[in-house]
Amino acid sequence: MTRAVFLDRDGTLIDDPGFLADPAGVLILPGVLDALHRLQVAGIRRVVITNQSGIGRGLLTPTEVGAVHAEIDRQCAVAGVSLDGWFHCPHRPEDGCTCRKPGTLLHTRAAASLDIDLAASWCVGDRLGDVAAAAAIGARAILVRTGDGRDHESAVRDQGIPVVDDLAAAVDLILSAPATT
Ligand SMILES: [Mg+2]
Ligand SMILES: [Zn+2]
């Protein structure tokens, strides 16, 4: 089994313009590629789990979302970085699915397909739902202040969950923390 970081996409890995359909609009946030590289060197898997309700709302097609992910993969590859998996929820909040974060269906699906030890893994994101999923799967969590992070900061702090400036700082914390397995 292997450790993983479950990464949120919008506001954590890339700038979030809202319902991004055009790969030309992909803007990877500062420090993200280096942070991913450090996880890669440490042998920690990098799995993206993202709520893409724009599909369910009819604002995005699955093909457009796939093209955005292909562009992120391409920019990562240029920097010598790879992502181990992409998992997205296409539903609207009111659909009541179990894959939209804070639901954990995508995390458990990823864990099964990539042989991930959830208790030794982390969830990193810019919203309460990203870190709430961590508690449900027995993983640790970190909120980043990029994206919508500042709006969620006080609620997350109240739960005793660490809040850091960005993904680079989150990776600092992950790599300095004792491994649980
Ligand atoms: Mg986000
Ligand atoms: Zn869903």
Account of the protein in words:
α1 links the parallel β1 and β2. α1 packs parallel to α7. The mean pLDDT is 96. The chain is globular and about 45 Å long. The protein is of the alpha/beta class and 181 residues long. The longest helix is centred in the middle third of the chain and has 17 residues. Strands 3-2-1-4-5-6 form a 6-stranded parallel sheet. The chain has one domain: Rossmann fold. Bound molecules: magnesium ion (MG) and zinc ion (ZN).
Beta-strand residue percentage = 5-15%
Choose one word for the global shape.
globular
Small molecules in complex: magnesium ion, zinc ion
| Intertermini distance | 10 Å
Q: Residue ranges: pLDDT <50 for 5 or more in a row?
A: none
Question: What is the number of E strands?
Answer: 6
Q: What name does the CATH topology carry?
A: Rossmann fold
Radius of gyration: 15 Å
The CATH superfamily title: HAD superfamily/HAD-like
The helix-and-strand class reads alpha/beta
Mean pLDDT: 96
* Helix and strand sequence: EHEHHEHEHEHEH
Which bin fits the share of residues in helices?
A: 25-40%
Total helical elements: 7
Short description:
Helix content is 39%, strand content 15%.
